[in-house]
Design goal:
about 80% helix; Growth Hormone, Chain: A
């Protein structure tokens, strides 16, 4: 499914390309499906807000706090979860995560007031903690650094795909199921979108291998090819967790990722509300319009991830789209009264920030290996995921005070500018292997 960016020249390169086509077909569609359902948890809360907020009496700030508490709990357990996965394997870790988060997500239908909203959001964060960095770490077991951007380009499609499905499906469930069995539409939404994660957790246990050498579907020769490809180019990376934590690069990456995540979650949580403020009426109409930016994001992610691998460049493939996202979000905030211009800018901002996010996750593999990769990836994701707490809470707080999301979005522009600056500081390490 994902092949090398350049045309294989030698027999060994052709053999490796064929093996990786098989690996991609086996791993990436299923991992994409799993992460798509994980991302529904990030999207559906924005649609539930349009109805549950009145049903249970939540203020804008209370909703923003509850939405953000998920990420706060998630962030606290990221590093321990990834370090544990390095010890006990992906199958045990990912299966546990998916089953528990699926049950808790479905239990969001039981929310009755602010307290139960906060408690279940915290529980959801605790149980889902480690999933995204765990899968990224899992991919580093299978893919060499020079192939990571294209692999991440497929896996990270879950964000926009989940947003498209979440927008349309959430809106459809809310409008179609409302009142069925005495439950509100938003309650049915949580049930219908949560329980499939339990099934996917079981399928992960049954179908995935912890490491390439344990994959029954690979021949002995194919295992050798994968292991050799992964090993090449990592001799000069940081391997120990202690050394990684003393490495300034990990904190620069974390800062850049934090800014990108603030931009992503500002859009995903508040786009339905922004559309509503612009006069768009009807949950289904809002759902369909919310899906539009993510169609463009898919195209941008696929193109930039492949050109990043082809040219061996991560730096400019993250700097430029991050800067473009900030500029587009600025236009969207300043011209919110002009719907066509504002919505067009939101489309550009969404596509650009998701493309930068995708290529960004090929960067740690060039710098860290071994235990450093497990802890480093989790630490970067931990700092970044705090953007999921800061972004919705800050915008909700500002909206309560001013009655508008504009100032909150302007703050996100500043954070994207900060991310752009941090990305300028990163350089590809010498001896990291061929691009």
């Amino acid at each position: 499914m994902v092949d090398a960016a350049r045309t294989p020249r030698t027999r060994e390169e052709r053999e490796e390309a064929e093996v990786y086509r098989r690996v991609g077909r086996r791993l990436l569609p299923f991992l994409l499906l799993c992460y798509t359902f994980a991302y529904l948890d990030r999207v559906n809360i924005g649609f539930a807000k349009l109805h549950m907020q009145d049903d249970i009496g939540l203020s804008e700030a209370a909703f923003g706090l509850g939405a953000g508490l998920f990420f706060l709990a998630y962030a606290l357990l990221e590093v321990p979860s990834n370090l544990l996965m390095e010890r006990i394997g992906a199958k045990r870790t990912i299966t546990r995560i998916m089953v528990l988060w699926g049950l808790t997500s479905a239990a969001m239908a039981l929310v009755q007031d602010a307290t139960t909203f906060y408690v279940l959001r915290v529980m959801l964060g605790v149980f889902e903690a480690g999933f995204a960095p765990g899968i990224i770490l899992y991919l580093t077991y299978w893919y060499p650094a020079r192939r990571m951007a294209a692999a991440m380009g497929v896996y990270m499609l879950a964000g926009p795909v989940g947003s498209i499905l979440g927008s349309g499906m959430s809106a459809l469930i809310i409008t179609s199921f409302d009142g069925l069995g005495g439950l509100a539409g938003w309650q049915w939404m949580f049930i219908v979108e949560g329980l499939p994660c339990v099934v996917l957790g079981y399928l992960f246990w049954r179908s995935m291998a912890d490491r390439p050498q344990e994959a029954a579907w690979l021949s002995a020769r194919e295992k050798e090819v994968v292991l050799a490809a992964v090993a090449r180019g990592r001799t000069r990376t940081t391997h120990g967790l202690g050394a990684a934590l003393r490495d300034s690069r990990i904190y620069v990456m974390s800062l850049a990722y934090f800014g990108m995540m603030c931009g992503i979650y500002a859009i995903s949580f508040w786009l339905p509300t922004v559309l509503q403020e612009n006069g768009v009426e009807g949950t289904l109409t809002i759902g369909l319009l919310t899906a539009v930016p993510y169609v463009f994001a898919i195209a941008a992610m696929l193109v930039l991830s492949r050109t990043s691998d082809r040219f061996g460049d991560r730096r400019w493939h993250t700097i430029v789209p991050t800067a473009v996202a900030g500029a587009a979000l600025l236009v969207a905030a300043l011209y919110g009264h002009a719907f066509a211009l504002s919505f067009g800018a939101l489309i550009v901002a969404t596509a650009a920030v998701w493309a930068a996010y995708t290529v960004f996750w090929a960067v740690p593999a060039e710098h860290f290996g071994g235990t450093a990769a497990a802890g480093g990836i989790a630490l970067i994701n931990t700092v970044g995921i705090l953007g999921g707490f800061v972004s919705p809470y800050l915008i909700g707080l500002v909206k309560d005070v001013t009655g508008s999301t504009q100032i909150g979005l302007l703050a996100m522009v500043g954070l994207l500018a900060m991310a752009t600056g941090a990305l300028f500081l990163l350089r590809r390490p010498a001896g990291a292997g061929p691009a």
